[in-house]
């Protein structure tokens, strides 16, 4: 029986560094190629030596698919393709292809220029890597080769995020990447058709959470920002340049407008304006409401939100600042955080998930004294708030997706082991399907049971229909005779005559014969004639022929008469019939 | 397998394919050339058009003063313009399972087919086709409803009377089938039946047939269609282009191995080279402006206009037209310009690269930003106060029978300084101009039709090698006016199967195999023995 194998190199019982290997129908596919934000050493990238120790990855992988532009899903891409070595096809959607290199470059700058790391990929490597990318359109079936096909579905989460359906013959796997089952202020909800994959590989970031309604969270968020501003505090919102940032900007923009607020809102420079342009040009990837009204009013042209300059951080008075990156692990958000952390009037709102090892993760866990580089410590006095705005499916959403796709098996990645365990139980109970949650480097094997496609000759079908009425008739199963030919990896069901012809074989007939002796004084010809007349009278409703060459044929049974050499009165009756006739006779006698 | 041909217009096709017990309509083109028989609908009261004499036959026996008016030596119907619909009697339209749309010009009859016929199926189209198609329908409805004409004319359609009318009314066919424009409500209802598809998406119909759109290179989101089962393949090629303009290039290789290839929508201007026409367009435009005249470009609000604007973007500075105002007037002008910028996935590679920067793919964004191009929903309102001459105006409808263009004809027709430049190939420019004669205005005919010409199509067919080709009968003989040009027709071996309006063709298929599946349990037994 064929098997599908799934091995996470990253994201196995873990969030960050998504990278999953799938072997299906003799093809090897890598899903995502992310880096871990919490590490600065080798553990940052997936362990590609698992695939091959020395040799290029191209020989072992048929394709690489990137689900979206977050660095924990694409951050290791230039490292893999240019430093380890991979020249095969890389697939991602248009928005991902547009935005991914910008984030990679940004990340490279922080790592190499600011932190001074060496042995890291270069700008040129990012460019060379992006040249290998083939853009994917939603719902387009892309034929990677003759047998492997992939198809992208809308995943919500961030601009251009996609789920992907991978199919070889009748076996298939769906990988969700990160997704969101409820539409938000700027993106739509993930959707997939009832494709019944053998395995559904789903993220499970919020495996145990069933989140309250979005409206409540939004109201909470606005209230907190508003209170802080009222008492003259500064609000820092660490975000990734694209994604949550735009959703929260739309939220604050409309709130400022409605409440007529004057405190400035800033967005850390560079990327932002560009980011908003991407949203305008890829508006078909946003939610229905924004798409419908974009001609009249483009939601991504903000009136109240202005570009941030580093010097503004020391300005007196209240302000709201969106700064990158989102987990406070480096860059501008961290700089501002250090400046504002000492004042209890200020506030930091973490709108998304933070991976272990980042400052974001530490302060969310209540740590109030942080060790900074060079042994300095930082007292955290400002208010720390967590609001889960990151667009991941919650437990309810994951169950909803399972109902949509109807997979035969479920596999969880991109989540914490304890939470996965809980969700696994729930899934197995509710859907009675197997659910797996392999750790990194651990392989899950699923046996599949695909039907075998066969081409049936139309002549054969027609002959069957002429014999027994239209086909197929689900109420009356029946037997039909044909020959199965296996040729050039395909199967054909044809009539035996055609099979002989195609294979160049001679037909061998199997006939049964027997001799019957009887006493009859007449000539051979007369005896035969008497038999003929007798049979005619006895066997009504059968075709009986007397042929001039001295044979009588009853249906396909041949009868001949000869005299014995010793005694001309002893006649020998020769009977011969084919094996099919036996069946016919048996059938009739029923 | 049968093909029912409901339209005789080769570039506005409407065919129905019965394939493996599914009934598939291929395109829903609306023949609008019928509107040329009607009087223009002026936006502003026109003393000239309102005082035209009614028509009475020479012997005085037929008096149709109310319905028919004599204008510039011709007779026109004085009523809301009507369109020639696809044939509705050839087969029961309620049996249609799906409608496949190839491009936004070929879906304008959709509301007539999906509404009031019992149609319960699904329409498949790409997103740009749906969005721009919706805009064009909206525009058409708007043009009609802005100038309501209560009166309808039916007496002239009586066979006995029509026979007595002067040409070309006398020769108009199927006039009883002509219908007024649909309403916005019907448009919305029709378009709610559209299901969006992407290029190379495989759509399963009832498990029997798989259909898949392919890029055809003609306009934003335009597609050819593959209709196939496991062993039979029909390609539907409609409105394709091999020229490099703004859309994604044509996907040719997927058309290979077809049993039957249905070929429609070739260029209507086989002898006019689009690049040459574009050059002529620019030079005539510059000449008129320099002489102090105005330029009127009657055009559709989407499609070639994007290329014209791009061409002008490069041309304006070099031709010293930097201060000349360019106006685009249409109820959908703004939407059309905005929508063109958001379909990165459907654009040619160069334009896609621009979006990655991120910059708008079409340079008309910059023309608008620098105030060189202004767009207005109509001549009323802001336009009338901001309008400066000499200028260039792009506006519809290219038939010159309705839309804002009628006003500019009345306004500028009397001066020989002005020029009208025809760029759309759908209407004979002489017929379009007929009710405005005598004209002092200069007329230039630069039809730009980027669809396949006969040379390109024969090369394509050699490449993809279909077993049989089906095409409109017009393609199997040289054009009437150029009967010696045997290069302007399809010559194939075996010869193409021609169709005309109301033809029913039996498509030649040699089916030999059918796909079945063996259960895995059974396959194991087979493998063991």
TrEMBL record, chain A:
InterPro entries: Beta_Casp, INTS11-like_MBL-fold, IntS11_C, MBL, Metallo-B-lactamas, RibonucZ/Hydroxyglut_hydro, RMMBL
Annotated signal peptide: none
Superkingdom of the organism of origin: Eukaryota
Gene Ontology biological-process annotations: snRNA processing
One GO location term (cellular component): cytoplasm
SMART domains linked to this entry: Beta-Casp (SM01027), Lactamase_B (SM00849)
Gene3D superfamilies cross-referenced by the UniProt entry: 3.40.50.10890, Ribonuclease Z/Hydroxyacylglutathione hydrolase-like
GO molecular function, one term: hydrolase activity
Named cofactor requirement(s): Zn(2+)
Location of the protein in the cell: Cytoplasm; Nucleus
Keywords, in A-Z order: Cytoplasm, Hydrolase, Metal-binding, Nucleus, Zinc
Chief subcellular location: cytoplasm
Domain Beta-Casp intervals: 245-363
Domain Metallo-beta-lactamase, first and last residues per copy: 16-229
Family: Belongs to the metallo-beta-lactamase superfamily. RNA-metabolizing metallo-beta-lactamase-like family. INTS11 subfamily.
The name this protein goes by in its record: Integrator complex subunit 11
Organism per entry: Astatotilapia calliptera
Gene: INTS11
TrEMBL record, chain B:
Subcellular location(s) of the protein: Cytoplasm; Nucleus
Domain Beta-Casp positions: 305-433
Record's keyword terms, sorted: Cytoplasm, Nucleus
InterPro entries, sorted: Beta_Casp (IPR022712), Integrator_9su (IPR027074), Metallo-B-lactamas (IPR001279), RibonucZ/Hydroxyglut_hydro (IPR036866)
Tree of life domain: Eukaryota
Biological processes annotated in GO: negative regulation of transmembrane receptor protein serine/threonine kinase signaling pathway; regulation of cellular response to growth factor stimulus; RNA polymerase II transcription initiation surveillance; snRNA 3'-end processing
This protein's GO CC annotations: cytosol; INTAC complex; integrator complex
Family named by the database record: Belongs to the metallo-beta-lactamase superfamily. RNA-metabolizing metallo-beta-lactamase-like family. INTS9 subfamily.
Name assigned to this protein: Integrator complex subunit 9
Source species: Astatotilapia calliptera
Gene giving rise to this polypeptide: INTS9
